[in-house]
Specification:
homodimer; globular; 8% strand; 7 helices; alpha+beta; four-stranded mixed β-sheet
Chain lengths: 200, 200
């Protein structure tokens, strides 16, 4: 049985629950508090020295962290990871875009606004984060105007990675009404077999 | 012939030059200015809609961006990409760590200090970026105390990804003298066949 160090409010953790649901792989979930220092305690640092969820313990006891690396691990050998080499590299291109340009802006703004509340530390950084989040959405919108999914015409882990925080971006105040191609893609993702909601 | 949209001061671009040197693949370099808006002009946005270097044009005319996705593309099928599935996922774990925790702190501080100079916008953000950079170095140091390379006992693209900005971290004021395991690893990386310097 796979163990997931999980967080109900984390889109990164949701990515792992979502791919395991698609693949019909059972999982034992351990809910972690991501705001009270639990992920920085010595027992958890043995699982992920970088102190973040999600992390998984595989059947053989091995630990693996970083949501998009976990997606890769489970996707390999399934239709969620392309058979073409350039398509595989493009899946990773979108996943690195997600972790560099999308998550630190869209997910962080959502966390500050929907979960932590604005603080004297976060408030000055908000306008730049919001602007950068919209720039990431602009890049996605332009691509999705010409493509049903991010890579190779079918649903892959690039879509899972980008869906996780895009579909809850409104919780951070982002207006997805400006983005018809993203909105249509969100609906396509939500109808994939085995889809679950972030609240499931 | 492969074309690289390059930048002499970018560690991300250096990763691509370094793997191509290891693999003996010739490349045509187009130097881009990363500070004057050149990467946001329409002609370059056709290459990488996300407006960043490095990006490559492959022999068939296809474009590929995101330094670590480019590393994957060239590494597949070589000793730089492991044969074991969990090792492959762990290479990606370290590469996502690099893009999320290491590059936005260590590379950004270096760029601000060594290239742009401190500005009224960057100066207030510096202490937090420097602290986060040291936390990333702490994670690397602890791992390298027990391992000669990041994954599987041999040199992979995880090492290339993390070497790029670690070996010039002192240009941003980071004191690598505190990190003997990182320092020994930097020397091991620099003796790999085909190694080139960032200034080559």
């Amino acid at each position: 049985m796979i163990t997931l160090y999980d967080s109900a409010i984390s889109g990164n953790a949701y990515k792992v629950r979502l791919i395991l649901s698609h693949l019909g792989i059972p999982v034992r979930r351990i809910e972690m508090n991501v705001d009270d220092g639990s992920t920085r305690r010595p027992d958890f640092l043995k699982v992920n020295r970088n102190g973040k969820v999600p992390a998984v313990i595989l059947a053989d006891g091995s630990a693996l962290a970083e949501s998009d690396a976990i997606l890769y691990y489970f996707a390999e050998g399934t239709p969620l990871w392309p058979t073409d080499r350039l398509d595989r590299a493009r899946v990773l291109q979108w996943m690195f875009f997600e972790q560099y340009n999308h998550e630190p802006t869209i997910a962080v703004v959502r966390h500050w606004i929907a979960h932590l509340g604005k603080t004297p530390e976060s408030e000055p950084a908000l306008p730049a984060k919001i602007a950068a989040g919209y720039r990431a959405l602009d890049v996605m919108e332009e691509h999705l105007q010409a493509h049903p999914f991010f890579v190779g015409g079918s649903y892959t882990i690039a879509d899972i990675a980008l869906y996780a925080y895009t579909h809850v971006a409104h919780e951070g105040g982002f207006d997805l009404g400006r983005y018809p191609a993203i909105s249509a893609w969100l609906k396509r993702v939500a109808t994939q077999p085995g889809h679950i909601r972030i609240t499931d």
